[in-house]
């Protein structure tokens, strides 16, 4: 019932802000146009379409706000006026009461804000979908920011994720692609991710790991976590001074090298995914700043590390090789890698998948490389594999989202960004280093102690394995014998059925011939029985006997 009420709320919000005006009515089916027709009675007001969309998403809560944040990074999908409004969702969501913020901090840290901090700014510095941020100064003079989770947000998120789960179950049960898309698993994965975002202690750990990965790096700076002041619902971080990445005028005013800035964003993404295997998975513009120092060698500053992702070694390897194979237009290898990685069934015909991939990619690669969307190519590739029963890979969902964010941001900073030119040498270098003797030596040093610990068990495991193979051969023979027995029984059953049918037909035929002369038979005149009747009766009786 709660999910139904929430669904009604969503529909009411859709109607209130006249979001139907954003839909291309001429391309909608007639029944949907009929359903939307009554909305024409609701005045649209003086709000622009971007404002209506932003206000609707704000009123529906954090999950929908995050969806708007994703759309705000895709100028290739949304018109500029809507992009401008949705950008306000990054860090300008209406704040909650400052008294509640102070109470949350005091409850978590066990003292008043005036005692804990040398200075505490009661006006919010930023307000986002899940948390709110205030500035403060520690007693040792360090400037910090305090982040606290919005009160009561768990209930709203639980409501929305229950509704999404309900919709996902319906899709999985009734949609043709339901089983392949695994919508319930995807929603559950998203639910876990967003609830993890409410645990600021986890975000602090993520920030600490990312900071360590990029320590002294000219590419990315991560603010320091103040652990003594951080709890599950409160996080205190070093305050950074940077230019929001969306303020292009300010970046140009300090003569920032925009080309290098865009390329470094791509390099950061690939470094996180392939070298560190630990990537910031919520890199929308509201979470990214640019250092004011060295504009000719611009450095990014990232905040809000609540959502991170990682891949296993196999997915890293297959993803890198897929990207390189696409870049080289080696569609045969793309098809083979999809099968080898388990993304499509082993029974898939390589030639058919190769032809399908070529059909999608060739028109794209006829464009100049700078005009090709890397993220869109991957999405098209996965979409093409749908008819080959490619299942959704939950471990790649965050990666795809992050890649789209990074590429959308890069295009905003430098429209002529050639993502391929940046990605190609990186992937080539990574694959080469993966099998370099130095890398193999590092793996040996890392896993050597574990291998040595298990080595004494190897002979025993080999002996057990050989025994299991012998038992398996024996079982296979017994299974073959059993199958043969079942086949013989099935043949006998089939023969019995056919004999029974023939017997019934024969006796039925004999009875049909006897019925007209039943009075003669009752009088004892057996000589008048037709010969055909005797034959059918004898045949039917014989068949019944054979059936046994």
TrEMBL record:
Any single Gene Ontology cellular-component annotation: plasma membrane
Uppermost EC category: transferase
EC number: 2.7.-.-
InterPro entries tied to this protein: ABC1_dom (IPR004147), Kinase-like_dom_sf (IPR011009), UbiB (IPR010232), UbiB_bact (IPR045308), UbiB_kinase (IPR050154)
Binding site for ATP: 125-133, 147
GO MF term (any one): ATP binding
Name of the molecule in the record: Probable protein kinase UbiB
């Amino acid at each position: 019932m709660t999910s139904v009420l929430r669904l009604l709320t969503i529909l009411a919000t859709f109607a209130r802000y006249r979001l139907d005006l954003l839909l291309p009515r001429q391309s909608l089916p007639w029944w949907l146009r009929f359903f939307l027709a009554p909305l024409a009675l609701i005045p649209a007001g003086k709000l622009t379409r971007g404002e209506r969309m932003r206000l609707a998403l704000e009123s529906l809560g954090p999950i929908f706000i995050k969806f708007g944040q994703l759309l705000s990074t895709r100028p290739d999908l949304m018109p500029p006026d809507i992009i401008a409004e949705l950008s306000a969702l990054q860090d300008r969501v209406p704040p909650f009461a400052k008294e509640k913020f102070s109470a949350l901090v005091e409850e978590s840290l066990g003292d008043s804000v005036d005692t804990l901090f040398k200075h505490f700014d009661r006006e919010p510095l930023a307000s986002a979908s899940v948390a709110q941020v205030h500035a403060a100064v520690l007693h040792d003079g360090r400037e910090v920011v305090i982040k606290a989770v919005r009160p009561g947000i768990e209930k709203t998120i639980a409501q929305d994720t229950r509704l999404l789960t309900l919709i996902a179950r319906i899709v999985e049960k009734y949609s043709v692609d339901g089983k392949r898309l695994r919508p319930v698993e995807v929603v559950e994965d998203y639910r876990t991710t967003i609830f993890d975002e409410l645990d600021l202690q986890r975000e602090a750990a993520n920030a600490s790991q990312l900071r360590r990965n990029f320590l002294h790096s000219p590419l990315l700076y991560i603010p320091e976590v103040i652990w003594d002041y951080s709890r599950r619902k409160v996080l205190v971080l070093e305050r950074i001074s940077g230019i929001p990445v969306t303020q292009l005028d300010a970046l140009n005013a300090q003569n920032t090298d925009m080309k290098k800035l865009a390329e470094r964003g791509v390099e950061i993404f690939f470094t996180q995914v392939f070298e560190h295997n630990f990537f910031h998975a919520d890199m929308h513009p509201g979470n990214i700043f640019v250092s004011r120092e060295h504009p000719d060698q611009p450095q990014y500053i990232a905040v809000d590390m609540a959502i991170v992702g990682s891949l296993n070694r196999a997915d890293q390897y297959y993803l890198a090789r897929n990207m390189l194979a696409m870049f080289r237009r080696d569609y045969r290898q793309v098809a083979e890698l999809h099968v080898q990685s388990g993304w499509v069934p082993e029974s898939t015909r390589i030639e058919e998948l190769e032809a399908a991939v070529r059909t999608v990619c060739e028109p794209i690669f006829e464009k100049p490389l700078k005009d090709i969307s890397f993220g869109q190519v991957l999405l098209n590739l996965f979409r093409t594999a749908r008819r080959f029963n490619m299942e959704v890979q939950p471990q790649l969902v965050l990666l795809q989202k992050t890649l789209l964010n990074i590429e959308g941001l890069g295009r905003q900073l430098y429209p002529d960004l050639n993502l391929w030119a940046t990605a190609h040498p990186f992937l080539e270098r990574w694959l080469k280093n993966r099998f370099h003797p130095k890398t193999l030596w590092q793996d040996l040093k890392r896993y050597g102690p574990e291998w040595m610990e298990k080595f004494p068990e190897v002979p025993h495991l080999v002996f057990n394995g050989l025994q299991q193979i012998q038992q398996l051969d024996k079982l296979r023979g017994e299974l073959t014998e059993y199958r043969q027995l079942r086949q013989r029984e099935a043949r006998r059953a089939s023969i019995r059925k056919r004999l029974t049918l023939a017997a019934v037909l024969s006796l039925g035929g004999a009875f049909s011939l006897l019925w007209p002369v039943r009075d003669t038979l009752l009088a004892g005149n057996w000589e008048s029985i037709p010969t055909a009747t005797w034959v059918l009766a004898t045949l039917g009786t014989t068949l019944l006997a054979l059936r046994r």
